[in-house]
Each structure stands twice: as structure tokens, then as C-alpha cells.
Amino acid sequence: MSQIAVISINTAKPGQEQKMEAAMRALIAPSQADPGYLQYDLHRDLDDPRTFVFYERWESRELLHQHFKAPHVVAWIAQAGDLVESSTLRILESLG
């Protein structure tokens, strides 16, 4: 099975940028310990500092879905409603 790439684009509600950045940074270390982790990088948009982008790579879709159920991700989802204005998630199959 092919590796999976994930692009997650999240725009903070006005005034919530610092809280959202802190919450997203807190995801990095535990996510790097999740089974199937290959890459988990957080970025900020240079033209829109309220927008944060995760670029991730996982060994398989099954292991990605296990990551989605991990306690640190579940906790993020629970608080995201207070922080996130808009969100886009793309799950991509690596073609080469």
C-alpha cells in the first residue's frame, strides 16, 4: 500500500492565533510517536498569519486513522471549535 500524505489547512478565529499555534505545536511530539508516523510538520502562511498548515506523511491510511483516534488528536478536536474559523483536510495517496 502507498504512503499517505495529509495537508490540513486551519485558519484561526480573529484573536485566537496564539492559542491555536500553541495547541497545534502541542500535537507535534505525541504525533511523532504515533505508529506509522513518517513526517509531521507545522507551517504558518506568510501572507495570512492566522492560517496554519500541517504537512504530514504516514505509512498507511489505516495508521493515519489510528492517529485520528489518539488522545492528543481527540483533545485537539474538542478544543478546535473555540479556535478554528475554517479548516480543510486533504488525504492524498503518494503516486511517486
Automatic annotation (TrEMBL):
Annotated keywords: Monooxygenase, Oxidoreductase
Coiled-coil ranges per UniProt: none
Molecular function, one GO term: monooxygenase activity
Pfam families in the record: ABM
PROSITE patterns to which the protein is assigned, alphabetical: ABM
Top-level taxon: Bacteria
The keyword Oxidoreductase is assigned to this record: yes
ABM domain span: 4-92
InterPro entries registered for this protein in UniProt: ABM_dom, AI-2_Isomerase_LsrG, Dimeric_a/b-barrel
Gene3D superfamilies, alphabetized: 3.30.70.100
Protein name: Quinol monooxygenase YgiN
Species in which this protein is naturally found: Glaciimonas immobilis
